[in-house]
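Office hours follow-up: a student asked to see two folded examples consecutively, so here they are.
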Amino acid sequence: MNKHPEIRHYLREIEKELSDMDSDLKKSIINEINEHLEEKFHFIESPVPDSEVKAEDVKKILEDFGEPKEIASEYKRQLLDEKESFDKRKKSSAKVIILVLALLVIVVFVIIAGLFLLGEDKEEADSTIYEGLGLSSIQIGDDLNKVLDTYGNPEDRVDSGNTIWLDYREKEGIDFLLNKQSEEITEIRFNPGFKGSLKNGITIGSMLDEVQNLSGGALNSTRINLSESHDYTHGWDRVLYEIVDGTGDTVSYKFIDAKKGILFWFDSSGMSTQIVVFTPF
């Protein structure tokens, strides 16, 4: 949710309207509103990666939820009603007061426990790709045991020459290339099925123009034959390669930025099909 500035702004506006309220109570209310928004937001975004959620979808969620001033006023009214009701119950029965306080403690405990578990889930949902590094939980230079501890046994493993290839594409949308001698990760490859993105929003499925705009663009572009698709004869520093077959038709594209340690593969339509992270050079 915090990836969307419109929602962060919306919550700040509600917080301003609650400025005269006790800070702990205000924080609890903002957390509650945020949870409701997350439910609505995840319902819309679940079929697609976060970066593909349309701005109008986010706007529609906030419009349906209500104006910040109205939301804050409704919470104040509810709190006032609860206070008046509480005062009446206090006068009528001490037992009712004890029951209300006990229920309040339970509710607060459930909210805190839920927020704690939500925080753990977010940490486990390691989905931000860092150029030249990988993910926060698994990075270039980590060893084979770290991969196995994090993802378990691979769906496939191929030892070839001086490399080890570990395949987790079906379950995680990721595969790894390791140096066979050191057993350290040299490449982390993100494929269709991986639901995360770079910090700038680029993800699997992003179009070539979008990647170029968000990454600073190519310093050089060239056409190469299909047989040269894995060669870098025209350089590594922000070079866009258009790969063509024997008839001159475009088969795919690749864009490499070695200084940032990242490579993008695209299909013939210009849609990103793989993001590769490696040590910058």
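And the second, which I mentioned at the end of office hours:
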Amino acid sequence: MTPPPRNPYLTVDVIVEIEGGIVLIERASPPLGWALPGGFVDYGEEPADAARREVREETGLDVELTDLLGAYGAPDRDPRQHNVSIVYVGRAHGAPVGGDDAARAGVFAPDAPPSLCFDHARVLADYRWLRATGERPPPPPGIVADVLRAAARDALEAAILRRPPRVATSEHAPWAVRPAATFVTLRTPDGELRGCIGEMTARSGLAASVRDNAVAAATRDPRFPPVEPQELRALSVAISVLTPTRRVASPEAVEVGRHGVLVTRAGHRGVFLPEVATDHGWDRETYLAMVCRKAGLPPDAWRDPATELAVFETVKISPG
């Protein structure tokens, strides 16, 4: 007798964007830990309706679905059984409160979540890529990160050790040659800044931008002397891929932990990456005051309607 066919179960997960970050829930049943809000699609239910229902049940929030990130179906993504998840992106307002299968809910920066259940770390990496580039994710983020880290390291060694660059074939992949704006940050072993250079608008492909800015951070940051060969091995290299900037109508639109800020006025210009505010523990007003000071403007220049404020987001590739 032929056994009945076994099919995966259909589930939904939602990346809920909210003031200050994204919403995660701490699961009340195994597998325990933090996860995206979500759950099973009921028979006869539209997946989008299931997504809205699960968010409401687990967080108390009404979510407006704004995007479809993708489908995730690796057989081992859920230790209980084979589940295929449709992952949505949405926006909500208010304070999340855990309910139903969620012991509690919280708001976290997308690039600094707690340890996550299932494959939700990969899902969030894909989400950050979507936000940074406006495009669906390329190969698994680990592959992308490894290629870009290797490109930055090779460019640094070629420039500082004065040897020919060794460009990998993976740097010519379609995703790697699409125009992108990046920043590259160098730090010493004790975490001190050693150089940071980037651009706000794309001038070349992603991999080429990383190479150019890695060399610039090591050799042309006016705050520091050029990196010496003996320093090279110990330096950490972090890469930030930027979304296009967009002007905001008021300072209240700037979200600390999510937005980088570009301030412009009368020929003065200053920029901070999103992590600058969180690293220093600044609130919005301090963040805006400090970026104005960096631009050579009075600290309260952000209050003046003549000052242009623009925001952007980043996908941060940490040192490997």
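Two things to take away from it. The chain has three domains: 9-133, 141-242, 246-316. The radius of gyration is 22 Å.
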